[in-house]
Design brief:
- The chain is about 45% helix and about 15% strand.
- Helix 1 links the parallel strand 1 and strand 2.
- The protein is of the alpha/beta class.
C-alpha cells in the first residue's frame, strides 16, 4: 500500500556505483508504480567531508558525487546526506572550525552537483555523539551552504537521542522536507 520509498546506498542493498544495477532497479521501481522519493547517501567512516586532509575530502566528494548520479538515475527527488563523518571524536576548537568549513566547501559542491542533476539536497541530522551531530552544527551548516539553504530530513531517533526532538522540529521547520521516523 505504499507508493514512496527511500533507497539506501549500502552495498548490501544497492551498489550506487553499478550503473547497470541502478538502471535495472529504476525500471523495477517504476514498473511497481513506486516513487523513489529519496536516495540516502553512503555513510561510512572513510567518507569524511570534514577531514583536514584534502585528498580524503576529494575521495569523499567523489563517492558522494557517484551517489548523487545514482539518485538521478533512480529519479529520486531528494538526496539525503549526513554532513559529518560516521565516527565519534571531539577535535580541538581550531580544528573543529576548520572541519566545519571543510564540510561547507564540499556541501557547496554537492549542492551544485545535485542541482545539475535535478535532485534536491536534504541534510539529515546525525546522532549526537558524531561530529556534526549536534543541532547547532546542523543549523550552522544549513546557514552556510550557498546559494540556497538545503532541505532538511529530520531523523526523530537521532533528535531524540540528542535530547531535543521538539526543539529540532521548531528550528528546522521552515526547511523540513522529510522525516525519518523511528521509535527508539
Amino acid at each position: 500500500g505504499f507508493n514512496l520509498i527511500e533507497v539506501c546506498s549500502s552495498y548490501g542493498h544497492l551498489d550506487y556505483r553499478a550503473k547497470q544495477d541502478l538502471q535495472a532497479a529504476a525500471k523495477q521501481i517504476e514498473d511497481l508504480g513506486i516513487e523513489p522519493y529519496s536516495f540516502h547517501a553512503p555513510f561510512r567512516e572513510e567518507i569524511d567531508i570534514t577531514s583536514p586532509d584534502l585528498g580524503q575530502r576529494r575521495r569523499s566528494e567523489y563517492e558522494i558525487f557517484m551517489a548523487v548520479e545514482a539518485a538521478a538515475i533512480l529519479k529520486a527527488k531528494y538526496f539525503v546526506f549526513h554532513p559529518g563523518p560516521e565516527k565519534a571524536f571531539a577535535p580541538p576548537l581550531h580544528e573543529r572550525l576548520q572541519r566545519m568549513n571543510n564540510a561547507v566547501e564540499v556541501l557547496n559542491n554537492v549542492y551544485r552537483k545535485c542541482a545539475e542533476l535535478d535532485v534536491e539536497l536534504a541534510l539529515e541530522n546525525m546522532l549526537p555523539h558524531l561530529f556534526c551531530g549536534s543541532t547547532k552544527d546542523i543549523l550552522w551548516l544549513i546557514g552556510s551552504v550557498e546559494p540556497l539553504e538545503p532541505a532538511i530530513c529530520l531523523d526523530t531517533g537521532h533528535a531524540y537521542l540528542a535530547g531535543g526532538v521538539t526543539s529540532m522540529i521548531h528550528k528546522v521547520s521552515t526547511k523540513l522536507q522529510m522525516i525519518h521516523v523511528n521509535d527508539n
